Amino acid sequence: MAKEAFLRDYQIDAVNKMSNGCILNGGVGSGKSRTGLYYYFQRNGGSKIPKDVSMKGRPKDLYIITTAMKRDSHEWDGELANYLLSTNPSHNMYYGNKVVVDSWNNITKYTDVKDAFFIFDEDRVTGYGRWVKSFLSITKHNEWIILSATPGDTWEQYIPVFIANGFYKNKTEFCREHVIYSRYTKWPQIDRYVNTGRLIRLRNKILVDMDFKRTTVQHHEDIYVSYDVKKYKEALKNRWDPYKNEPIQQASGLCYVLRRIVNESESRVIALLELLEKIPRAIIFYNFDYEREMLMHVCSEMGQCIGNSEDIYEVAEWSGHAHQPVPKSKKWVYLVQYTAGAEGWNCIETNTIIFFSQNYSYKVMTQAAGRIDRLNTQFVDLYYYHLKSRSSIDVAISKALRDKKKFNENRWANKSTNNEYKPHQLVA
Known about the structure:
The protein has 428 residues and is of the alpha/beta class. The protein has helices at 9-17, 32-43, 68-72, 75-81, 130-139, 159-164, 171-178, 196-206, 229-238, 251-263, 266-276, 289-300, 302-306, 338-341, 362-369, 392-402, 409-420, and strands at 23-25, 62-66, 99-103, 117-121, 143-148, 179-181, 190-193, 207-209, 217-224, 240-241, 246-247, 281-286, 314-318, 332-337, 352-355, 381-388. The protein has a six-stranded parallel β-sheet with strand order 3-2-4-5-1-8. It has a six-stranded parallel β-sheet with strand order 9-16-15-12-14-13. Helix 5 (130-139) links the parallel strand 4 and strand 5 (143-148).
């Protein structure tokens, strides 16, 4: 049997197209880590294609900024070893450079680093907080690349990368040239973008796609469940929060209440149990803490609900409450909160993901689906079950995801309330 190539053809093509400040858009499971490291290896004089050549002299210090889960699982260690690199100084004697793998939470620690090479794994440079400020500071004095499966839902999410590449001086300049704000909201809200032709050209300049043919086949199935229609309509019409017993003032609050009414349906729990009767190992994604409580309760009684003692599932979770590894038993359920665990880890021990509720972001949903769609998975057929209702908010979220967009709470809430009941506009 011929030895498998160190890099696949599409990965080699990507390396040849890469440059400082680019985004390696590999899609989930495409091998971005190996490809990104090879680019660093090559930039410092090393090569494994067509033959092994060591990096020259003392290569640049390497900093990999990734998710906490990926750091703690030491997922990068295996790839680093391919290049005789290690985060352990005592094991990194061959080159003697510094190698650091740390989480985005600690990015501020590295703002004073100069003349090094940074790999930003799982793009988190969106918004205008301390992560972005630290990112912009780092990129001024170092070489860098970004690894991302889904680079952005909107043009706004490209602003930090555009600034870091010198396309714009700051956010103000970007917005002056490309953003039209809505005149009908209390707080600044983007209505549309203009001069998008330039934005497309700039994105194409830095975006390096890795096109590869998957050996897996994804099967997505929508499972529709019922909900308390009366309670839903009352909350929508009266804008009253039945959980806090107070008026709803903001669009985000309205959406939260409506989703909770929908998601807490007993029908949704029953549908989940029916799925688990047929699935020995499943990852379950959810959004909110109240969903977690429901899922933990269901899982705690799983054996009793499903059958005998042999049917008891091991339960673990990755959330804001606990960071546990994926179980290794015969039967298990792994509960994952979208924000905590939609990216930065892999699982090849199951071919099934259940989405207990939908996330607003197409990017997040794609990342979540990719946790089991890996190059080294043993499965060909992958199954994704989407629990959802036919409520107006679930339908709207589904449409946004189908259009590869991010669901806009403010726009939907005001449209829904104004169209159906014509009350005064909700605060954004």
